[in-house]
Amino acid sequence: MVTLEDVKKDPEIDTYFQKTNAFLGKMGAIVHDYSHANTVSDNSRRILEALGYPKREAELAAIAGYLHDIGNVINRYDHGRVGAVLVFTFLLRMGMDPEEIATVVSAIGNHEEKTGSPISSIGAAVIISDKVDVHRARVRKKDFSTFTTRDRVNYAVEHGELKIDPAERRITMELNIDLSISSVMEYFEIFLTRMVLSRRAASQLGCNFELYINEARFL
Ligand SMILES: [Fe+2]
Ligand SMILES: [Fe+2]
User: Fold this and answer.
1) Alpha-carbon distance 108 to 193, whole Å?
2) pLDDT tens digit sequence for 114-146
3) Ligand 1 ion: Cβ-proximal residues, 5 Å cutoff
């Protein structure tokens, strides 16, 4: 069975992976490096394990989480769906079972807030893990005057934490925002659709989604 380790060690996948971050860098877009891929991968696994899903399902979520943004190697727009097709070719070559490939590619093809839906437990875990990975280190630009609102909001996030409470069936995102850089209003201006999708994803997992910003509850 194909594991996350096999995917990480695959030289072809790794080449596209590195090119993705390099191409996005040329556009000054938010960082999509190993750290984002690993965070989404680890959290996707953690969510499903904490909620008692089978080990293999958590492993597939970790694979989908690791590869979810690889479609950016072709274009930022529609990178979810394009990435799903790319990943299909990788996993087919690696001999993954078609049922499992279907699960992984549908999760990747559904992670973008504009066109995605939480269609499975794995897809839901990837959506939540991706949407909550907002923080200062992801801003590539150094000159504050060139920041977009998205850059500013990311930059304002000093600390973020994803908590899963299986007993209460609750998934919580806790953010610490430097309000001198971005207001809570600005955060919602940029991230409202993401939070709405995360809430739908949590409900797919039979959980409520809560959002705390500077210890005040917003969702
Ligand atoms: Fe993405
Ligand atoms: Fe992402």
Assistant:
1) 18
2) 999 999 999 999 999 999 999 888 898 888 899
3) 69
Whichever domain contains 173, its CATH number is 1.10.3210
Tell me how many domains the chain contains. 1
**For tokens 């280190």, what's the residue?**
137
CA of 131, nearest ligand number: 2
Note down the domain range covering 101: 4-217
Distance 1 CA to ligand 1 centre (A): 26
Ligand nearest to C-alpha 41:
2
Kindly tell me if the per-residue pLDDT of 86 is higher than 90.
yes
